[in-house]
Request: fold
Amino acid sequence: MSILGRLRDSLSRTKQQIVGRFEDIIRQADDRGRSHPVDVDTLEALEELLISADIGVDATARITAAVKARSSTGEGLRDLVKREIRGIFEAVDQPAPTGRPTVTLVVGVNGTGKTTTVGKLAKLLKREGQTPLICAADTFRAAAVEQLEIWAARAGVGVVRAREGADPAAVVYDAISSGLAKGCDPILIDTAGRLHTRVNLMNELDKIRRVAAREVPGAPHQVLLVLDATVGQNGLTQAREFTGVAGVNGIVLTKLDGTAKGGVAVAIAHDLKLPIRYAGVGEGIDDLVPFDAREYVDGLFEQKW
Ligand code: GDP
Reply:
């Protein structure tokens, strides 16, 4: 299956929940005639459906308002909904910043799939012809570092680690030096997911950023926040904490395959104004795919998939 097909496929649980009702709404709207303004019942049903897919209150309000405003243009309801949602993703779309080498910080709460994502990302980028190096900067969890080494071996990439309790910023310095010496690019840094206080976490991430910036101009170029799609809307609160602290400029949405709350991708783009770079679609090393808004929207709202 194509990489993009896998994104569509991972949405099957979300789609199962909404597809029947969506087709009913479309049928009702079409029965009334496409050139008529959409009626209140249809709008309410659509609103309920979007909320139930975890698309969020604000994004849902935007979508239904657009449907209402444009419903007498003759464009079908399906196309109106799809276009509006694509627009939400396009509004925050921007090329991922790069450097020489590109330094990518991966942040997020423990359990979201952060370690797994770093391994999968290394594999994906290696397949694209890059030579990633992984940096294990989560020095609080020895088990996480070991886990990361297993993933690095699976991906066939190197990993720089320090002993438990070492200063994470020092490990980042070592990894960047080693990456520069060996010509590795990108450098993927796995960071701690939890410290005693938010201030500690902020200080640690700050220090890592400063060390990286000193070694490579513009680093860290990407700060990817890993969010667990199964958490749905609640993940947004968590995300706001991190975006404020860490200079997040992209999202990785994991476990899309395991949830009926896959609509949360729309809420993330709409509310956080951040692009979703990758989606986790399973537990294997090849189960990370670039996020493609068109495929995502088709995957949720086209009948044939
Ligand atoms: P961390 O604590 O954030 O580093 O999380 P881990 O990388 O250890 O992952 C936590 C659990 O989530 C593991 O059981 C992973 O296999 C699982 N996981 C991670 N990403 C995905 C995904 O995209 N889909 C599914 N189904 N499971 C995932």
